């Protein structure tokens, strides 16, 4: 996800947020290298089949969430009654408030960490639903010239899952 940029002089907590996300990106990269070496290169038949199965006319959009996401953690950390107007929270995170409510309701028994993981996936689903409201996307899906996928990259456990939206 693109966490965007803010204007003006950065505050220390914002910088911390960015630093944490940078670390996540680094881990995402190294995790992907591992995935490539241990899964992709060991099972070429699976991926060759996928590549051949794709019609060249179809464009694919994939929205990928990831483990230990700083943005998601920030979203889940906000108290329900607190104003979302703080500029600490990026706009893309605010969009996922319905996902937060869903996770809060369904998984109140889980630990904060576990709720974060649920929310990381739930946020992808919200993003996909938002995409479907764009006329271009809606049309593409109807005409089968566009395919929409969700993905979740768990670099803590080295797992990568995708699903068709
Ligand atoms: Zn993130």
Automatic annotation (TrEMBL):
Binds 1 zinc ion per subunit. It comes from the Eukaryota. Gene3D superfamilies: Carbonic anhydrase. Coiled coil: none annotated. Its EC number is 4.2.1.1. Keywords: Lyase, Metal-binding, Zinc. Its cofactor is Zn(2+). GO terms for molecular function: carbonate dehydratase activity; zinc ion binding. Belongs to the beta-class carbonic anhydrase family. This is Carbonic anhydrase. It comes from Dendrobium chrysotoxum. The lineage of its organism: Eukaryota, Viridiplantae, Streptophyta, Embryophyta, Tracheophyta.
């Amino acid at each position: 996800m693109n966490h965007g940029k803010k204007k003006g002089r950065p505050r220390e907590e914002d910088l911390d947020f960015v630093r944490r996300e940078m670390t996540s990106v680094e881990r995402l990269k190294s995790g992907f290298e591992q995935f490539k070496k241990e899964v992709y290169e060991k099972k070429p038949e699976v991926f060759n089949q996928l590549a051949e199965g794709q019609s060249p006319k179809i464009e694919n959009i994939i929205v990928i969430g990831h483990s230990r996401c700083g943005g998601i953690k920030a979203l889940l950390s906000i108290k329900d009654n607190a104003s979302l107007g703080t500029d600490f929270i990026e706009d893309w995170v605010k969009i996922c408030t319905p996902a937060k409510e869903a996770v809060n309701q369904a998984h109140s028994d889980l630990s904060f960490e576990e709720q974060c993981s649920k929310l990381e996936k739930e946020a992808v689903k919200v993003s996909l639903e938002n995409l479907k409201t764009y006329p271009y996307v809606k049309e593409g899906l109807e005409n089968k010239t566009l395919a929409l996928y969700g993905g979740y990259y768990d670099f803590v456990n080295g797992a990568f899952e995708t699903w068709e939206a």
